[in-house]
Each structure stands twice: as C-alpha cells, then as structure tokens.
Amino acid sequence: MQVLTEFLSTISFVNIVDVAIITGLIYFVLGWLKGTRAFRILGTLLGIGLVYYSATELGLVLTSILFQYLWAAIIVVLVIVFQPEIREMLDRASPVRYLSGQTPQQTPTMIEDVVQAVAELASQRVGALIVFQRRNRLDNLILKGKDLDSLISPEALIMIFQKTSPMHDGAALIHSGRIKGVSAILPLSRNEELSLHFGTRHRAAIGLTERSDAVSVVVSEERGEVSLVERGVITHYKKKTDFKEALDRALATTGEAVESGHGFLYTIVSNWRLKALSFGAAIFMWFLIIGPQRSELGMTVPIQYTNLPPNMEISGQWMDRIDVRLRGSESGLANLKPGAVRAVVDLSNVTPSLNCYRITTKNLLVPPGVTISEIRPSDLFLSLEAASQKKMNIAPTLVGEVPDKAKIILSPQEVRVKGLQNELKKITSVTTEPVNITDLIAKGKLIVPVVVKPEGLRIEAVEPMQIVVTIETEKQPEVSKPNG
Length: 484
Hints:
The structure is a single chain. Helix content is 35%, strand content 28%. It contains 14 helices and 23 strands. The strands form 4 sheets. Strands 9, 12, 15, 17, 18, 19, 21, 22 and 23 form a 9-stranded mixed beta sheet that branches. A 7-stranded mixed beta sheet has the order 2-4-3-1-5-6-7, with helices on both faces. β3 (171-175) and β4 (178-184) form a beta hairpin. α3 (37-57) runs antiparallel to α4 and α6 (110-123) crosses α9 (240-252).
C-alpha cells in the first residue's frame, strides 16, 4: 500500500493531461484503421516493439541492435506503402475542414423526394446509390462521371437508376439541394470484416463515408433493402418512416455530433473496446517512456541571485552552488543537459543585515517529469550591507621617470565607484595597470585598464574600465637674439 501511495503521489495533473491527449490520438488512428489491412500490420508492429523492449531489458545486445536498425527500415516502408491512408488521415484531422462553411442547405422537399424515390426503387428491386455531400469536398475521393446540375425529384432519381438508363452505373451526387452528378465511381471500403453479402455498391457506400463526412443511401438490387451509411456504419431500414427520420437526422447534423437522444454517457460507452485499448496503449507508452519516478540522481546545481536592490551589496562569502537529489525516469535523468536544473533566489525583499533563506522546491527550476527529493543545504545565509557610489580620481601607476616639464594627461580623470559604504571610506582614489614611460613617450598614447582595490568594489561602467594616458611636453620659450 505504501508503494502504491508513493507511486500515486508522483502522478501530477500534467501526467493525466499527457495520457489523455495520447489516448485521443491513438483512438483516432485505431478508429481510422480498424478493420483494414493496416490495422493488422499495426498489431504486427506492436509485437515487434514488445520483442525489442524485452531484448533491451534482458540485455540481449545483438537482438537489440538488430531491431533498432530494423525499425528505421520499417518506418520508411510504412510511409511508402501506406501513403494514401496517411494522406487521408491527415486530411480528416485537419481543422480547415471544419472552417469551410456551413452545412449545405436543403430544399424544403428534398428529404421527402429522396425517400419517395428510394421506396419506389426498392419496390421495383432496382439498385441505387445516392451520396449526400456535406462539409468535406469529395473531388479527391471520387471519380466523377457525368455532370448534371438538376433539381431533385422522385421522377429524376428513379429515371437515373433504371437499367435502361446510361447513367444507372455508379452513384448520384447530391449537394446544396441539387443533383450535381451521376455515374460517379466511389472508393471501396478497406474494412475486411464486412459481411460477405455486401456487394460492390454497399462497399463503395461504406468506403466513401469512411474517408469523409458524406452520407450514402443504398438500395439493394437483390433484396430490395434500403440502407443508410454514415461514418462507415451501415444501417438497414424496413419502414419508410424510420428511414426518413434517420436521413433527416443525418443531414441535419454537421457530421461531428452524436445522434439525438444520446447523451454524454453514450459518448463514453460507445465503442468502449477500442477506447479501452487506446487508453491501455497510452498507459503502456507512459510507463515505457516516462515510467514511475523511482530513479534518483545527485547533482550540484548553481544558484542564481535575482532582483538585488541597487542600493544593496552582498558582503563576505556567499554560496553559489547547492547539492540536490533528483527523482524521475531513467531516460529523463540520463538526458539532463547542463544548466537544466538551477536554484533561483529572489533578493527583492532583503534588508541590510544577515538574511536567512529556506531553499525549497519552489526555488528550483527543473525539466518536466523531474522532481526534487532532497536539498543540501536547505538554509542559505546572506549578509547584505548598504551600498553607495563615490567619484574618485584616477592615480596612474607610472614605471620610469617622467621627463622635466612633461605632463601626464588622463582621459577620463575620474570614475564612479560603487560598493559597501565601509569599504568606500577606506580609499580616496583608484589606480591603473603599470604605465611604462618609455613606451608612452615612444607612442604618445597608451590605453590601460583601471584597477579598483580592495575586492568588492566595482566601477559603474562596462568592465573592465580603461582610460587613455597621454604625455605632453611643454614647449621652450623662444629667446630673441640681440641686433648686430
């Protein structure tokens, strides 16, 4: 029980959201591939993945390396073989399809006309396939037959599907309340679990609705049966009223809403096996990649002091590093980069005295999935004193003798020094690095850095501060010669 409690304590809200997102993605992919050849291949890949994971955990080096290279080849092959499926899946997931406009409007009598025509075709045992286009464009899914921009009427639909009509093969396409085309060729369903009594017409109706939000109506030529297909699901209707209600409900939705009469519980329970499989796969991936946070690692991390008031200075010695123990997954801890973990201490509320800070996990910045189990030392002591600024003259350090009547000129002649008040009282000027007089006379000008002592004082400028030292020699006055 203690182990379970410790494990549950490591699960955060971020982990829950992470698993939920992955569950949704897996459910989307599995729902798209369910019943297809790719679904069975996905199961094979899962088996290969389990073998590779087991070989890695058992230390089977040769097997692990072989499967590692095999994965790279498998990914390339999958992209090539399943290019159409990948393209359709990405198109279905694109948010652009939901921003393409409103659902096409229906004419007041469209549903009634279609139901009447379908009932007549079923009674005559005449096969028919009618497609209602909604938000998704179907240009890239169907092979258009003949364009026909016609009003919808029972007579027109019955005439189209008569065996003597040259337009009876293929599907009739209805969009925006009009018959837009006839003899259209639809893609067949990839679901290999369909019943054998479904012919080409039914498989085409299912195939199109698997790839788009279109709605298809099928009339069986052999059985005189009327079926409605939506989102890859085919439903048979024996009563005219039931079929009319179902068609009206299907065309009234935008393709994403669940059937009326079903609430939130229906959304959760429906297709529960696939959802449970998706959730289990997401949990397995979480354990495999992230896992329960049981591994630990000791690390020395830097301390970053921030928001020090401009009128304060840290005096004496202070800590710049602390030791911490990190807890997380083995892969997460192994991939930590330098600087990924650091402690941040806010000095905005310090006082000119000895300040004590308790370093907690809130002061430590760590990557996602990593937690802090121990901090040593957890108490930080900082001595701060009031700081001030003072202008000081620069006294150059000269090496050699300055010629008579020569003058040393500094630019600038003074600097502003900042530091603790007690330290500033001890000095009246700052000096420079040694200035060689011989070099100065030869070159006429030297640039040397300023030196501030004792340590703890600094110049209020971009360090290191440098000055220009020049030397000027006074000109001798001219002596006038007496006349003759």
